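User: What would this chain look like folded?
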Amino acid sequence: MIEQIAAFFTIEMIYLWLNIGVIPFWLILIIFPQSKICGLLVTSIFPFFILTSVYVYLGYYFYISGYDFDYNFTLYLGLYDLRNLFEAEAFLIMFWTHFLAINLFCGAWIMKDSQKLFMSKYIVFVPIIITYFIGPLGLIVYWIIRMFYAKRISLLD
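Assistant: Here's the prediction, encoded as structure tokens.
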């Protein structure tokens, strides 16, 4: 039974499931940001528990496959080494899982923070979309909007 599950969840299949799997969370975050379902599903620990489970599974899968995790530390040696590291399928899928989790976390934080300031979901729509595609840029756009909306500049809030 476990062999059948492992045979189904190839790296390519996990990649597809990850990409399709985060879309409902983002849609709930964009369309229904103030609903109970958003609070229960998106801005809670639930999606991160799922993504962490996938991350742990991938780590275990690559560990038993003999992947050299020490090789990951070559990313600090230079751009050439980083490019070589991204050629490894194991590193690439784990990086992608990490990227999806961090972007979703940032999107959920933006939404929760905007609700504290009673910002309209229409104002936050653009930074949320940008965060989905380009996480850090979405955070900066939100911070600029937040700065004008809150009429104060605070780097510690």
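The chain is about 75% helix and 0% strand. If you want, I can go into more detail on any region.
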